[in-house]
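tmp note - Sodium/calcium exchanger membrane region domain-containing protein
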Amino acid sequence: MSSEKASQEPADSLLTKDPVQIQHHSDHHQSQPVSQSNNHSLPIPQPLSASSSSFPNSNDHQVQPTTSQSNTHVNPITGLIRKQTWVSLLTPEKKLSESNPTYKQSLNAIIRSSWLNVLLIFIPISWILHFVTPNQDAAIFTTCMLAIIPLAKLLGFGTEEIAMRVGQTLGGLLNATLGNAVELIVAILALVKCELVVVQSSLLGSILSNLLLVLGMCFFAGGVRFSEQAFSITAAQLNSSLLIMSVIAILIPAGFHAAFSNLSDSVEGPDVLKMSRGIAVILLIIYAAYLVFQLWSHAHLYTQTSTSANEHEGHTTWRGHKILRPSNSVRAQQHPTIIQNSADGSSHPEPMEEEDEEEVPSLNAVSAIILLGLSTALVGVTSEWLVDSINGITRTGVISEAWVGLILLPIVGNAAEHLTAVSVSVKDKLDLSMAVAVGSSIQIALFVVPLLVILGWIMDKPLTLLFDPFVLIVK
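out:
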């Protein structure tokens, strides 16, 4: 009993002392070393209801937030935008291998880049048929189609090799610009020849082909092998919103035409043309804002869908969405089944950090530029022969211009990537497949279509957004 009373006396005396003395007294006891023979410990004093003024030294132990400290918690994306300079635009995101391929190695890489290169034999065949037998429109059209398919593949291969040597943003802009180069070249040549029906039907055919045929085949092929496949909900919602916006913009001229159908073509035509050109400018602004969203402000949402397709047929340019390469800051997004938080707040173990690997280019810089320029030139010339032969095959009445644009021409520029998208979906990479299909459709709807309307305005061609009603209903 005497020992218990002795142990309680210090605690009772502490409660009766001044708060300042309590603080110094507790500090004194904390500084004293505790011997192992002392088995008792002082109870923690209860907090006293005293004002802050009674604790003159309490502010010394509190860290007051300052202006400089509060500003340190900045959005990393915002910090990235501020630090981005012209030097960073030309600096590759990943370190390139020091071994630069020779011209012989580059040529070998081009030949072995895809099995579709066997169709390159149709380039000279189509040219010979064009000059020797100009009346054989069906043969010229068929051989030109087969020749453009491997050229589109090589065009994407050269674009990816050049994008590998520049910064992430500049490479993304390069991929976004040349993503639908074949469709753009074919449409421009048809616009120059005033084949307006072919231009409109080919662009809408590309959108429908990507959204219905390619995306449906990706879902089917992936679903045959896997019972469930995951994709980014945020990116899918944004893509859906952009597609709906583009459809509404295209439906405005059709709605105007239906509402004022009693007007003559001479009165309605100029109004529809002015309306289409204004909508085209707005769509281009929306596309520019979409690029800013995708490349700068919210680039982390698209990093997962930009995984390089080196595992499949060498390099593959993912249209629209193959803009950003994987970064360490969002490495966890590449393992969604491992690190995503569950609904109850529990989290799965985080994956181990992977070491950065050097990117090994398949071509040297000069070879990549030559390949890109040569492929573009060959696509342009071959597409011109292709457009010239359309009138010959539609003149017989067997097929129409709308059918050629909706069905045949979309196959020309998209066949290589269609096969790649389905193959990647079988490997449980549904995000990449959706990036190919939906991203290409968005790019055509928001960039290629309004750009052609503006080009028609410059060339004095009456290209409008008033499409065939049946095609619009299907879209």
